[in-house]
Design brief:
single chain, about 525 residues, 8-stranded mixed β-sheet, 5-stranded mixed barrel, 16 helices, about 25% strand
């Protein structure tokens, strides 16, 4: 992109006047955030009692009235009008400001807070300071930044122009904060585990590869922190969690990004049912505190109860208790198949257009569930007792060894959480690892993690673990339709040489998705 000629001219004018366009900066020790100023100060106070304040932010609008200039300044808390007057600033300084000030510049202003004759709360500036010159005009606040490709590639421009995006990432931060607080209040300790793994384990996924030059090791970016977190249970910690990035070298879809955020927590002396109760409490509280509860716009807007969250053209009900149903019950209800009868499953799969040839039974069952069941689960539903073949790290149910003590929380057709009573029998775990390796499936571990088996041989207490996809949680609560709307800087295809964002088609965000859709994995 070329810098506009008029902005280059203004840059030259500033330098000729001896003003640095990007000064070393001022600490602005008395600066207030705009929202704090507007909350504490009374713009209707009489002369002599008015609050004096320093504000700073981006120039969001300019209105020239000859001997005065109205500037709207915006910081990350709000915006306020600033009144610049020739009489207060001096003719030379005021004239220079009128010549060089642009939308997008950063400005500090000091003065009294009062009202204009039109009744607008305003800082009447008696001193101003240019903090940073903008060489590109920000996108229009009136029209926003609608082009999807530009919004994803230039998130900074999206945040400037689109209050919805700006607010969504604030909400994301609050959701992570409150998730952390929820766990810490219940005695969980936050830890950090490695991102580089010698063996990709803890989930079924194709890993990313990298190489450690000094150690001459080929390594994987982690697909899950599970096995390291459970090693900590062996070591004696009873409640641990981690919020961090995982990496799965799979296709793109509106629900899956290869780099995503997960919360995983492990709880000694707990079982699956303990996590059902805690997960329900956490998700319901986050929905109430951070969900999108307004349907429609303007005068037609409708405020919904706090347990209802708007997503697209429908409303999700997060009121407790959430629905609970077994995996087998749901497959029978929506696919008319018996998950324990291979012939029934394969026949139903063919009937519903799910690929069957050359695939293991558990793969067909899983796809059948995703195709026939998940789209019907809009309100939060705990799907319990999944087939044990789909759960290589889970304990079998004592009541039925064919199923695992495991649940998935499905909301609006997406897997949001996955939890189970952890397998702590080292010989059973070794046998399952060996069976996985024998499959030679690129999405399964290529070798047995003997160190993890050895850890179990030291003894791991009975425990239950859970993983919650942070990105999907934010999607559900903020009404985002694509996972890339809730990731600040999603990875995209390199742009063709010479291509301009503004020329991209409105549906450009789907171009990467065509590269290959991944399974609807729990992570995101």
């Amino acid at each position: 992109m070329q810098v506009p000629a008029d902005r280059i001219d203004k840059l030259t004018r500033l330098r000729e006047a001896g003003i640095a366009p990007w000064p070393a900066g001022s600490s602005l020790p008395d600066r207030e955030r705009i929202a704090d100023l507007l909350e504490r100060a009374d713009p209707d106070a009489p002369d002599g009692e008015r609050a004096t304040a320093t504000v700073a932010g981006r120039v969001a609008s300019l209105r020239d009235h000859g001997n005065s200039l109205f500037v709207d300044l915006r910081d990350d808390s709000g915006r306020v009008q600033v009144f610049l007057r020739k009489k207060a600033l001096g003719e030379e300084r005021f004239t220079l400001l009128k010549e060089v000030l642009d939308l997008g510049d950063f400005l500090a202003a000091r003065g009294e807070l009062a009202r204009t004759r039109m009744g607008e709360t305003t800082v009447f500036a008696d001193d101003v300071e240019l903090l940073s010159k903008s060489l590109f005009a920000p996108p229009s606040e009136w029209y926003g930044l609608a082009d999807v490709e530009t919004r994803l590639r230039r998130r900074y421009a999206d945040l400037i122009a689109n209050p919805e995006s700006f607010g969504r990432f604030r909400t994301r931060s609050a959701i992570v904060r409150d998730t952390r607080r929820f766990l810490e209040d219940r005695g969980f300790m936050e830890v950090e585990t490695p991102m580089l793994h010698a063996i990709a384990g803890g989930a079924a996924a194709r890993p990313f590869m990298t190489h450690h030059n000094t150690l001459h090791l080929d390594l994987h970016l982690r697909i899950a922190p599970e096995l390291h977190l459970k090693r900590l249970l062996v070591g004696g910690y009873e409640r641990v969690f981690e919020i961090g990035r995982n990496f799965r070298n799979e296709g793109l879809s509106p629900r899956h990004n290869p780099e995503f955020s997960m919360m995983e927590a492990y709880w000694a002396y707990a079982r699956m049912d303990d996590w059902i109760e805690s997960c329900e409490e956490l998700v319901a509280s986050l929905a109430a505190d951070h969900g999108l509860h307004t349907r429609g716009d303007g005068e037609e807007a409708e405020e919904l109860p706090r347990h209802q969250v708007v997503r697209g053209d429908h409303v999700i009900d997060f009121s407790r208790p959430f629905r609970r149903a077994t995996y087998a019950e749901l497959v029978r209800e929506y696919a008319d198949a018996d998950v324990f009868d291979e012939a029934s499953v394969r026949e139903a799969a063919k009937r519903h257009g799910v690929e069957v040839a050359g695939r293991r039974l558990e793969q067909v069952v899983d796809d059948l569930f995703g195709h026939c069941v998940e789209p019907h689960l809009v309100d939060p539903t705990f799907v319990t007792h999944l087939p044990l073949a789909l759960s290589p790290l889970s304990k079998a149910s004592p009541d039925d060894p064919r199923v695992a003590e495991r649940f998935e929380l499905i909301v609006d057709g997406m897997e949001l959480a996955n939890a189970f009573s952890e397998l702590n029998d080292p010989e059973d775990q070794l046998a399952r690892f060996e069976a996985q390796v024998a499959e030679r499936d690129p999405e399964l571990p290529a070798e047995v993690d003997h160190d993890y088996v050895d850890a179990l041989r030291y003894g791991m207490p009975p425990a239950a673990g859970i993983g919650i996809g942070i990105d999907r949680l934010v999607m559900l609560l903020t009404g985002a339709e694509s996972i890339r709307e809730v990731i600040l800087f999603p990875l995209l295809r390199p742009r063709a040489a010479g291509a301009e964002d503004e020329e991209a088609p409105a549906d450009a965000a789907t171009s990467d998705e065509a590269a290959g859709a991944s399974p609807d994995v729990a992570a995101g």
